[in-house]
C-alpha cells in the first residue's frame, strides 16, 4: 500500500475540492469524477449531476432535471460509440434500489407467451448465448427543443441520443429455447422493474411497452453496455433492447417479456408517446411513437459557442437510418441552398448504429448555417420540416438541426 | 438549482463515504467514481487508484504501482472496445502537468524530416482532416507474469492491453501537406513531451522511439480516445498512434514527429525493449520489440475466481493479429488436446482491432483447462510456447494464457 500519486497538483486539487463540497453535504450531490478528458469539471449553466449518475462527465452534459440529462452537442466525439459517461439519461420512474445490481446474475425475467413459459435469471441467460449489437438509443422527444410551439416535456436539442454497444442474448434464441412464440401473438411486450409509487393504479405509472412481434428478430436481452455491466441508471442488471425503436421501448430492469395478442393497456402505451395533432392529447386512436426514421446532425466545428477559425474546417456529425442503415449524407454550408456529398468516417457497426460523416470545407470569415441531410438505404430522405405534433416527438427536420456558426 | 437526487441510499452512501475519506486527506488518493456498473467499489488485493487516474473503475483493475495498472481478466467486457475507465496504464515517466490539457488545442508538435518542416498546433491538425482507427493497444510486456523466469518488470497477465478507438489526422496527410517526407528517411521517430527528471542525461530517460517509415501508412496523430478527448494519463492532448506496434511506440504528449535516416539513440530505443537471451541485457545488436503478433485469450467464464456453473457455457475472449487481421480462433476445453472452431461476435473494426470470439460448450462438473488459439490472415498461428527472453516481452503462448476453471 505504498502507492503514491504522481505529481498532478491541479488534478488532485480538483478532486479534493469536489470531495470537500460533497462532504459538506451540499444537497446530497456527489462529486463527479472525470471519466475522460481533463477539462474543468463544472460546465456553465447546468445543474449539478444527481448522485446516482455522479460518474457522468459533468462537462459533457446538460442536466435538465434529476431524471433528464442530455449530451452537449459540442461534446459528442467522433469515435462512433458514445462513452457511457456522456450518454443521456431519461427515466420515466426512479431506478430500483441499487441492491439489484449487487448480485446482477440473480435478477430474473419472466418469459411469457411462449410454449414453455418460465423465469430466467441473468446467470441462465448468460449461459444461453452471446451477441453484441451497436444501436442508436434515442429519446422519442429528442429535438423537441426546436419546436416553436414549446410542447411540454424536456426541451432536448440533439443530445437525447447516443450510439451504444450492447451485449446479451438475442430474444429469438430465448424464445426458441422455450419452445417458440405461442400462436396468435402479434406483439412483444416488455415490463420494467421500477418500484412503483404507492397509492396509484399501477397501470397509470408502470413502464410497459409493446412493439410489433417482428421487432423480436433483432431484439436482445442485454447485460452489458459499452463493454461494462449496464449501470443502474441505464437499466442494469438487464435491459430489453429493441433496435430501431425509440428509447422508451428499450425497457430498463426488464422483469417480464411477454409475447401478447394485443398491445398493453398501460397508460404509457395507450396515451403516452402518441402522435397527436398540435394542441391535442394522446389517446389510443393516434399513431404510437415507435420506429425511428432517418436523421442526422452536425456536431462541429462551432457547436460549443458558435465561433470557428476561418479557413479549412472539418464539418462532422452523425447520421442514422432508424430501422434502415444510412447510405448517404449531404452537407450544406449555406443553410440548404447548395449540398455537398459528405464522407463516412470509421467502421460501420451495422444498420442500427449511427455513422460519423465529415466534409472538408473552406469557411470564409462571416456567418454560416451548416446543415446535414441523410438518406437511408430504403431511399428515405431526411425532411426539411418537422412533422408538427403536440408532444414534440420525432423531430428529424434538417432545418431545425442546422448549426449557426461565425467564422473569424 | 432545485435538482435533487432520486432515492438511491446505497449509491449515495458509497459516494459520501468516499468523499469523506478523500476530504480527510488520506494520502492524496481521490475517491474513484464508478464509470459503469455498480458493484462494490473496492476490489480485494489491489492498491488504491492514484489520484491522476481516480476516474478509473477500481473494481476492474489491478494497481501494481502508480504508473502500472492492468485490467482484470474477468472485467474485460464483450463490447469490442475497452472502456477508458478499464484501460490499462503503463507510463515510462510521469505525465506532464495537467495544465497541458487545460487548452488542448494549443498543444504543438514539431514535424521534421519533411520538405517544409514546421510546428503545428492541435487546432491546426483538427482543421486538416479527420479519421478514426480502432486498434489493440498492448504493452510489450503483457503476459510477462506467465514467464517462470520472473523477469524484472511488471508481472502483467492479460490486462496490459485493450482495444481502443482513436480519432485524429492520418500522419501521411500531415506529411503530404508539408511537402512530403524528405529523401533518405527510413524511420518515423516520435518524441514524448513528458517533463524529464533533472540532473540526468536526457537521452537516458526521454521517451523517443523509431519505427520503420512504412508504419506511417496507417499512423495517426490522435486527439480523441473512445469518443472523448484523450485523458492526460493516456497521452492527451495529442498522441502518436502506430497501429500494430506495441504500446511504447504510441508516443504520448507527442511534441516532435520526425522522419529520420536512423533510429533514435535514446536509451529507451537502443537498450530498452530489446529481445535479449535469458539472463542477458538489452543492447542495440538485439531485435527491438516492435510489431505485435497473433494472440488470443479467454476472458470467461470463470476468469474471476475460477468456478463456473456446470452445463452450457459461453466461452468467450479476444483475438487479434498484430499487423494482420485475425481470421480464425479455436478453443480447447481440455488444455489443447482437442480444438473447436469458435464463432466471431460483433462488428469487425478493422485489421488492427481485436475481435470477440465465443464457443458454446457443455462443461461437465470437474476441472477444465480452457485455451484459445488464433490464426491471422497471413496464416500465422498463435504458438503453444512463449519465446524466452530476458525482458519477458511478447508472450503469445496459448498454453501460458490457458484458463483453469472448476465447473460445479
How would you characterize this protein structure?
- 2 copies of one chain form a homodimer.
- Chain A is mainly beta.
- Chain A has 3 domains: 11-71, no CATH class; 98-270, Alpha-Beta Complex (Sulfite Oxidase, Chain A, domain 2), CATH 3.90.420.10; 295-407, Immunoglobulin-like (Sandwich), CATH 2.60.40.650.
- The first copy, chain A, has helices at residues 9-23, 122-128, 171-177, 202-205, 267-270; strands at residues 61-65, 68-71, 89-90, 108-112, 118-121, 131-138, 161-170, 187-192, 208-212, 220-225, 228-229, 239-241, 254-260, 295-300, 307-308, 311-320, 326-332, 340-341, 343-345, 355-363, 366-376, 403-407.
- In chain A, strand 17 (326-332) and strand 18 form a beta hairpin.
- The interface between A and B is large, with 104 and 104 residues.
- Chains A, B: Its cofactor is Mo-molybdopterin.
- Chains A, B: Residues 102-265 form the Oxidoreductase molybdopterin-binding domain.
- Chains A, B: Residues 288-400 form the Moybdenum cofactor oxidoreductase dimerisation domain.
Q: How far apart are the first and last residues' alpha carbons of chain A, in Å?
A: 53 Å
Shape of chain A: globular
Assembly classification: homodimer
What value does the average pLDDT of chain A take?
Answer: 89
Number of separate helices of chain A: 5
Radius of gyration of chain A: 22 Å
Total strand segments of chain A: 22
Q: Class of the largest domain in chain A, according to the CATH hierarchy? A: Alpha Beta
**Relative helix content of chain A:** under 10%
Please, how many domains of chain A? Answer: 3
Largest interface, counted by CB within 8 Å of the partner chain's CB: A-B, 104 and 104 residues
The run of helices and strands of chain A is: HEEEEEHEEHEHEEEEEHEEEEEEEEE
Main sheet: strand order of chain A = 5-4-13-8-9
Please name the fourth-level CATH homologous superfamily of the largest domain in chain A.
Oxidoreductase, molybdopterin-binding domain
Largest sheet of chain A: 5 strands, mixed
Uncertain segments of chain A are: 1-44
Structural class designation of chain A = mainly beta
CATH fold name of the largest domain in chain A: Sulfite Oxidase, Chain A, domain 2
Amount of beta strand of chain A:
25-35%
Mind telling me which CATH architecture of the largest domain in chain A this is?
Alpha-Beta Complex
Domain Oxidoreductase molybdopterin-binding (chains A, B): 102-265
Cofactor (chains A, B): Mo-molybdopterin
Domain Moybdenum cofactor oxidoreductase dimerisation (chains A, B): 288-400
GO molecular function, one term (chains A, B): sulfite oxidase activity
Amino acid at each position: 500500500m505504498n502507492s503514491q500519486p504522481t505529481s498532478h497538483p491541479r488534478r488532485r486539487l480538483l478532486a479534493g475540492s469536489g470531495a470537500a463540497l460533497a462532504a459538506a453535504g451540499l444537497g446530497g450531490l456527489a462529486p463527479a469524477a472525470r471519466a475522460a478528458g481533463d477539462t474543468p469539471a463544472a460546465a456553465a449553466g447546468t445543474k449539478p449531476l444527481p448522485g446516482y449518475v455522479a460518474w457522468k462527465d459533468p462537462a459533457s452534459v446538460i442536466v435538465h432535471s434529476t431524471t433528464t440529462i442530455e449530451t452537449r452537442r459540442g461534446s459528442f466525439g467522433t469515435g462512433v460509440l458514445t462513452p457511457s459517461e456522456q450518454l443521456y439519461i431519461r427515466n420515466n420512474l426512479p431506478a430500483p434500489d441499487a441492491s439489484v445490481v449487487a448480485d446482477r446474475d440473480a435478477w430474473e425475467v419472466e418469459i411469457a407467451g411462449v410454449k414453455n413459459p418460465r423465469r430466467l435469471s441473468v446467470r441462465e441467460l448468460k449461459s444461453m448465448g452471446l451477441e453484441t449489437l451497436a444501436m442508436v438509443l434515442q429519446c422519442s422527444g429528442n429535438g423537441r427543443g426546436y419546436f416553436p410551439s414549446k410542447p411540454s416535456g424536456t426541451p432536448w436539442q440533439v443530445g437525447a441520443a447516443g450510439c451504444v454497444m450492447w451485449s446479451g442474448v438475442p430474444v429469438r434464441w430465448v424464445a426458441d429455447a422455450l419452445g417458440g412464440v405461442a400462436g396468435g401473438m402479434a406483439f412483444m411486450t416488455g415490463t420494467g422493474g421500477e418500484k412503483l409509487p404507492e397509492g396509484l393504479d399501477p397501470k397509470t405509472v408502470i413502464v410497459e411497452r409493446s412493439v410489433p412481434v417482428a421487432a423480436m428478430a433483432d431484439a436482445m436481452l442485454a447485460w452489458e453496455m459499452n463493454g461494462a455491466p449496464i449501470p443502474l441508471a441505464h437499466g442494469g442488471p438487464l435491459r430489453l433492447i429493441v433496435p430501431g425503436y425509440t428509447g422508451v421501448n428499450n425497457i430498463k430492469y426488464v422483469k417480464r417479456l411477454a409475447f401478447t395478442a394485443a398491445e398493453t393497456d398501460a397508460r404509457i402505451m395507450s396515451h403516452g408517446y402518441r402522435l397527436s395533432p398540435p394542441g391535442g392529447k394522446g389517446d389510443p386512436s393516434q399513431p404510437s411513437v415507435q420506429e425511428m426514421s432517418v436523421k442526422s446532425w452536425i456536431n462541429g466545428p462551432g457547436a460549443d459557442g458558435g465561433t470557428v477559425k476561418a479557413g479549412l474546417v472539418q464539418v462532422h456529425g452523425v447520421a442514422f437510418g432508424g430501422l434502415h442503415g444510412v447510405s448517404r449524407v449531404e452537407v450544406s454550408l449555406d443553410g440548404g441552398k447548395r449540398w455537398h456529398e459528405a464522407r463516412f468516417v470509421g467502421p460501420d457497426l451495422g444498420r442500427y448504429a449511427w455513422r460519423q460523416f465529415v466534409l472538408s470545407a473552406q469557411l470564409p470569415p462571416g456567418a454560416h448555417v451548416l446543415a446535414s441531410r441523410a438518406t437511408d438505404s430504403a431511399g428515405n430522405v431526411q425532411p426539411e420540416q418537422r412533422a408538427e405534433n403536440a408532444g414534440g416527438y420525432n423531430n428529424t427536420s434538417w432545418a431545425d438541426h442546422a448549426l449557426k456558426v461565425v467564422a473569424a
